[in-house]
Amino acid sequence: MIHPTAIVHPGAGIGRNVRIGAYSLIGEHVEIGDDCDIGPHAVITGHTRIGRGNRIYQFVSLGDAPQDKKYAGEATRLEIGDGNTIREFCTFNTGTVQDQGVTRIGDHNWIMAYVHIAHDCVVGDHTIFANNATLAGHVIVDDYAILGGFTGVHQFCRIGAHVITGIASVVRQDIPPYITASGNPAAPYGINSEGLKRRGFSTDALGALKRAYKLLYRSGLSLAEARTAIETEAQTHPELKPLADFLAVSGRGIIR
């Protein structure tokens, strides 16, 4: 299953039923789980661990040094979970010792061509990154988020669960869960109703989320006042708890 022109370091850990395409390069400290499919001309290097059942297309670069001038060759890591699709020309870097030393991508993510995930980012499960979406360092993207094509995310921002961004959005602050955002800078445009319906949110849950959105963005309340009101609502509508928790720990402030 390994093409004769591929270069696989003897120290690399290759699982069962792994296909590695022509002219690909697999480094010494790489671990690839069972049933992965690596396309031609892929470069996977660094201290990189890849789980099971991933489809990685041609010309990707995974696990190379972070684009951070403070990086001094430390043995930081890239960890990729199971069942991901990673399309052409994606670049994922390892972490830095100034953070946790690891860049993490979870399970069952759909990552389209030319996506860049920088050092120390944490990506959850079931996300979608459209072409050319770019994460700067130390960004967190929670489960089921969708980044539109050419979305750019500033360092240390967080994208909440079930968020969707429009094409070419520029994200300079945190986006709370469930929000639709677009523009430069990204601004809120209601909740992601269609995506939430597809994921099984009930009519009652959607109504609670819409009311919470109005509290946060249309009521004239301060952020602290809106958060308190949402925390009260979350006692009877548990789907609001992720929103309340997010607002309690937002680091860069939220888009408003």
SSE order and pairing:
Layout: E1 7-8, E2 13-14, E3 19-20, E4 25-26, E5 31-32, E6 37-38, E7 43-44, E8 47-50, E9 55-56, E10 61-64, E11 77-80, E12 85-86, E13 91-93, E14 102-105, E15 110-111, E16 116-117, E17 122-123, E18 128-129, E19 134-135, E20 140-141, E21 146-147, E22 152-153, E23 158-159, E24 164-165, E25 170-171, E26 179-182, E27 187-191, H1 193-198, H2 203-217, H3 223-234, H4 241-249
Parallel strand pairs: 1-4, 2-5, 3-6, 4-7, 5-8, 6-9, 7-10, 8-11, 9-12, 10-13, 11-14, 12-15, 13-16, 14-17, 15-18, 16-19, 17-20, 18-21, 19-22, 20-23, 22-25, 24-26
Antiparallel strand pairs: 26-27
- Shape type: elongated
Radius of gyration: 20 Å
- What's the structural domain tally? 2
Q: List low-confidence stretches.
A: none
Helix content: 10-25%
Largest sheet: 9 strands, parallel
**Computed structural class:** alpha/beta
Our measurement of the CA-to-CA distance between the termini, rounded to an integer number of angstroms, reads 51 Å
CATH topology of the largest domain: UDP N-Acetylglucosamine Acyltransferase, domain 1
Per CATH, the architecture of the largest domain is 3 Solenoid
Tally of alpha and pi helices = 4
CATH class of the largest domain: Mainly Beta
CATH superfamily of the largest domain: Hexapeptide repeat proteins
Mean pLDDT over the full residue set: 98
* Largest sheet: spatial strand order: 1-4-7-10-13-16-19-22-25
Q: Got a strand count?
A: 27
